Amino acid sequence: MTLAKAYVIIAKEHNNLQLAWELSKKIRSCQLLLSKAAMRGEPITLDEAEPIISSLSSLIFTAQDAHYDIATTIMTMKSHIQALEERANAATVQSTLFGQLVAESLPKNLHCLKTKLAVDWTKSMPLQDLATESRNSPRLVDNNLYHFCIFSDNVLATSVVVNSTISNADHPKQIVFHIVTNGITYGAMQAWFLKNDFKGSTIEVQNIEEFSWLNASYSPVVKQLLDAESQAFYFGEYQDLRIEPKMRNPKYLSLLNHLRFYIPEIYPQLEKIVFLDDDVVVQKDLTPLFSLDLHGNVNGAVETCLEAFHRYYKYLNFSNPIISSKFDPQACGWAFGMNAFDLIAWRKADVTARYHYWQEQNADRTLWKLGTLPPALLAFYGLTEPLDRRWHVLGLGYDTNIDNRLIESAAVIHFNGNMKPWLKLAISRYKPIWERYVNHSHPYIQDCAAS
Fold first, then answer.
1. Which of 26, 332, 435, 446 could form a Cys-Cys staple with 305, CB 3.0–4.6 A?
2. Using CA atoms, how far apart are residues 329 and 307, in angstroms rounded to an integer?
């Protein structure tokens, strides 16, 4: 296409308008094919590409046979390529910004669902009484049951995690879900889980704003998030364009995102728990995770260093002696999103204090940029037990080429990345896996989808 565009310019300069028109027509055919491939999220096939490439090649040979001055051709192509590179770079930056914006936004149907549920919660005293009563259930602290936790403000996504977990569990009545959300979503989350049946499993919903102990005097991250400099970094009018947009994602200002480091404080009477992100789908019974031998470690997680870019040196600043003196740059990274935690071992190793130490060291954001994985790699260093890869398969929010056999064998699949399954930009190939666990018969979901 680049070569053809150069010859369009040259043909026009030599008044060969017919050739310029034919080249432009074929270029448009190429662009249309690329657009279709992008929309469907699948590569262009050889059968699709070959006719267009052959006809375009033929026209380029015709242009070359016209004996246009070679120096003119080279100069025209050089300037054209330079212009294309500038446009491509600008488009890449814009695309990243738009993609990040879409990923951060709440779709209208999810906002509609949250609003309807919030109204139900506000108007229904019996619902509120039931929520108060369920807070005292002995099942919430029974270590003979299987405990899972989710920290999210997305009602539908959380529902899919819960629904997929209990649907694939051998004994759903032995499962307890602990959900923590923010004050804005609390009523809607309570209404949803109190008004719907989840096969007899126990579901607790808590409001993070009631955690009075999680304050700036105790938690370095709370202190940092309230800091004016941090606010300017995320929301300031003049932002450094050299910093990746995803690194300025306001989700990092959400305490829900950092709550995973305080699990023993939230559930002081529990001994084991499985943490699940709200963008996962469970496909197998997860209760065997509770009987895995972690060999004295705190965190059971799937390692991600089969690819070189998931080693420690990719997440942390090893030019800083604080990091380079304590950690192996080639150490293997692991996935946060499906983690089996031994809370007795956690308390013994005081992992939360480790997390606090590294957050304080990184107050100026020089050890790592943002996110929860880098401080987790530091806090759980030497305390992580590698799990079989089939427990947790990642990449469904950005990678279009994951092997179907790997997805089918996975206990948990993770839509990490911007292309979340509840967004329009979701990868169409994977979206049905998530949709399977949405209760499409619920009148609110039907009304919100229609509206």
1. 332
2. 14
Cα(64)–Cα(306) distance, rounded to whole angstroms?
A: 47
Interval 419-449: pLDDT, tens: 999 998 899 999 999 999 999 999 999 999 8
Pairing mode, strands 175-181 and 146-151 = parallel
pTM of structure:
0.77
The predicted-structure confidence for 246-273, as pLDDT tens digits, reads as follows 444 445 557 899 999 999 999 999 999 9
**pLDDT digits 0-9 by tens, 281-334:** 999 999 999 999 999 999 999 999 876 568 999 999 999 999 999 999 999 999
Rg (CA), the chain: 26
In the beta sheet, which residues pair with residue 342?
272
DSSP string, 181-207: E-HHHHHHHHHHHHHS--TT-EEEEEE
Q: Which residues contact 174 (CB under 8 A, 6 or more apart)?
A: 145, 146, 287
CB 32, CB 103: distance < 8 Å: no
Asked if 256 contacts 395 with a C-beta cutoff of 8 angstroms, the reply is no
Q: Alpha-carbon distance 24 to 413, whole Å?
A: 44
